[in-house]
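Hi P.,

Sorry for the delay on this. The queue was packed all week, but I finally got your sequence through. Input first:
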Amino acid sequence: MGYGPFFAPPFFPPYFAPPFFPPFFPPFFPPFFPPSFVPAPVFTDSTLAVPTVGVAYSDAVSASNTTSYSVVSGALPTGLTLNTSTGAVTGTCTSAAAYSFTIRATGSGGTADASFSGNPTGGLRVYNGTTWVRTVMYVYNGTAWVVDPVYVYNGSSWVPGA
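Then the structure:
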């Protein structure tokens, strides 16, 4: 009938569309599926409260698309630890020394960093001959020496701090 190798019969009676594609008709290239996009972590809460020496501390950072957290530079204030699964920072700060650290959120799409620095509140201020520095006071509670926060009156109540 003279259709040629690249043409199907007409689609009007008495001819019907073939129920299959001829062998030369399949695509010459495999189908293209774009790679799945996995977004990088983004901090949704990148603030931490300033710790007070001798007072229990609990705060957290959080990031979307994250599988773990880690401290990649510096160090948390002495006495505090980072939960690498949840981003929670907990413990009791035992040093009035300045701190500076960076927390990294890691996910399958990459990483994100958040930096923190400051000085814990509380502790005693002692003059070292050059400048006033913070230190902590230890008290014996009958079993062990523990850090004792210094309390100040803020006009309405006694609060930890200096």
